[in-house]
Every structure is written in structure tokens, then in C-alpha cells.
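subagent[fold] <- orchestrator: predict structure for attached chain, return C-alpha cells only, no commentary.
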Amino acid sequence: MYKQVSKLIVYRDLGEDSILKRLASIFEDFDWYKANVVGNSSAFSASKLEEMKDKKHISKESLITRIYGEIKRLLDLATDYGFDKNLWHNYLTFLLMTNENSFTLTSEKVGANEGSVNHFAKNDFKIFKELFDYNFYEIERELSIDCFSTISNYQAIVKKERMYNYNVSAKVQNLSARLEKCDDEEGFFAEVTRFYADYGVGMFGLNKAFRIRPVAGAFTGEDNTPAAGTVDIYPINNTENVVLDDLVGYEIQKQKLIDNTEAFVEGRPANNCLLFGDSGTGKSTCIKAIINEYYDRGLRMIEIYKHQFKDLSTVISMIKNRNYRFIIYMDDLSFEEFEIEYKFLKAVIEGGVETKPDNVLIYATSNRRHLIKETWNDRNDLEHGGGGELHRSDTMQEKLSLVNRFGVTINFSRPNQKEYFHIVTELAKRDPSITLTDEQLCAEANKWELSHGGISGRTAQQFINYIAGKS
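subagent[fold] -> orchestrator:
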């Protein structure tokens, strides 16, 4: 195995801590063990054996211990991603899908291109084909183990989808099954580049939504405050599987959002978008649904919280050259008078020297129309005495300028009672366990909203959950 891994070119940077690299090292030591302990010296030349004389500590027991350590890591990975059947093939496929290099990055969302790099890629695919077909019989026989045979025909314990990354699992197992049918590196090349064209590569290819966090150890000050510009983008493993049709009503609002997003994913001019209005009316649901419906067309979402706005420029610089369309999502956006984070947001949207890249838009939701808290004093143009700002209208314009940078604003208002009852009855139709008549549902829904926050789509959904739970 180490002989194959040493010949990788494009996919060479697997990380020294990767399971494949560690197994390759173990298999090299196993050949030394055979030559020096078992007495089979065919694997190495005399000069090579002399170079490796410091490996006298290698024993059957140490090899087994190291192998079991990597098998444990492989089982942990399989648990995280719900791998099944041939875990070895699943793992190798996972490597091909997640390794970001010169070949994979130019192939993401566009597929294979003509170029000399294809020669080196096919060299690596030939090696991966050999690894797919690797015969573990000899090492299992010599060490009296059967772990490789077991993981090659593995039956995983059935788990609920939310317990592992189902989105990644399905893609890995599907591609792995197709690669198993390939006869040579040409088949591997065709299948893998087709996957890159359909989904992409690495975490952006496999996942829909992401958050950011400080890079480990990158802190400033005694209070461990994260340093600006030292962030990592990491995937949200299980996003809510919701589509726009799940939101009852608000057809005009949904269509505005669709039109803007369609233009964005197709590369036409599009605007930053603000969804504002009453709580519980489906603003956040719409954003989640948009990501689900346009994921296969290269749309991805990065959720950012208010305290992270100082890192917006860094995040954009990390994604601007990728072949995806990114929505930077800000949920429940609003600012108090004393908060100045909105200044970072203003600069990123339109005010900075560097132009915002074409593959990035900002979508935000808020219960406030103007985002920043405004007082009546802000509307009094002059202040006489007191040491305050002289022209308060300038302050008001400063606060209102943020919302003006969203080219599309969509109002989600609270439904009236008739609309509320319509939402309730439509949601009830989706659950066969609910057998109440429309009249009974409306009567119960009316009682429910009086003691649960008033009329809204969220209240209607909570009522349906309550009724379904009693059925």
C-alpha cells in the first residue's frame, strides 16, 4: 500500500495524520517485519533493509495495535457519516470528494477541462483503483486478524438521519458504488469529475450551510476575545429539510425571493435581500428553503452572527474565488443604539474600497423595518445644550443608511384570523394522524393562539405539533 501512496501526485497532500497515510506506514513496517522476523526478504533490497535497521522494535503485537487504532478511526468516521457496506471503499471515495487541490478546484461545478493536469490526475486515479482492489489477505493471515475483511463487508447499525451527516453519507455511498464498477482509471476519471461538476469538492461541495468560528489558539487579550481575520468556516451537518411549499401563504413574498435568487444563481445582477416583519411569519424558513432548493445549482449559505461582523471581509476573501454562489445569512438582525457592528456590515455591502465579489449576496431577516433602534430625539434636527450631537438628522440618516443598502426588502406581516385558520387547516392535511374536522381545528386553534403568543404561522405549526402529538 505504501508503494501506491508514495506515487500520488495531485492527491498527494492527504495529511500525515490521515488514515491512508498511517496505514501506508504500517504496511511498510509490515514488509520489514516479514523480511526480518518471518524471514521473507523479497519485499526489500539488502541496502533498503540496512536503512531500516532502526525498526527492530516492530513486532506482530505492535503492528496489530497500530492497525486496530486506524480501524477504530475509520469506524468513527463511518459513524459520523453513516457509511455502510464497504467502509474501505467509502473512505477512499470520501478522500476523493474532499481533497482540495489544483485539479479538483478547477473541476468544481464545471467538470473536467482539457489540460496537462489530467495526465497526473489519471495517474492518481489508477492508484486509487489499485487501492480499491487492494488484497488484505496476506497481512490478515500473517497477523491472524480479520478487521479488513470485516470493514469490507460491513453492516452498520441503523440510525436516524439526524444522528449523522446524511447529506454527505448518501453522496459518498452513491459515488463509491459507481467507482466499484469502474474497470480502470478512465472510469474513475469520468465518475469523479462528473461528481465535481454536479456538487463540487471539499466541504463546500458536500454541505449546504456553514458557520464561522475562531481558529483554535487565535485569540487576543486576557478575555480570550477572538482576533479579527482568524476564522474558520465549518459545515452545519444537518440542515432543516424544508422547501418553500412548506410555508403556507405569502406567495408574493416567496416569488420575490425566488426571482432574486434565480438571477443570482444564473449569474445575472441580483440584490442583497432583507426579509422583515412580525415574528413567526416564516422569514427564516424561506431562507432555509431557498438553500435546499438551489443547492444542486451551486448555492451555499454561511450563517454569521452579529458579533462576527468584523470578520466579514475575511470570510468573503476566503470564498470569492470558489465556483459557488454564497448567501451570507444574518438571522434576526437588529441593533441597539450603543451597538456599532452595523458599521462593519455597511462597509462590506457597498462602502468598502474592494468591490464585493459577484458570487456573494447578503440575505438578512429582522423584526425591525429599519434594523437600528431609532428614537424621537433622532428626528429633532438641532440640539441646544447638553453636549449632544448638533445635527440629529445626520444621526438618523446614518442609521437608515444600512437598510437602504438592501436592494430587495420583503415584508412578512402577521396573518389575520382567516389566514391563520387557512394555515392551520393546510398544515393539518399534511399529517394523516390528525382527524379533526376543519371546524374543530379552527375552534381549537383559536383557543391555542390566545394563550400561545397570538396569531402567526409559528403558532399554527406549534398547534399542529400539539394536536399530532395527542393523536
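orchestrator: received. Logging for downstream: The radius of gyration is 29 Å. The beta strands are 209-214, 219-220, 225-226, 231-235, 273-277, 299-303, 325-330, 360-366, 408-412.
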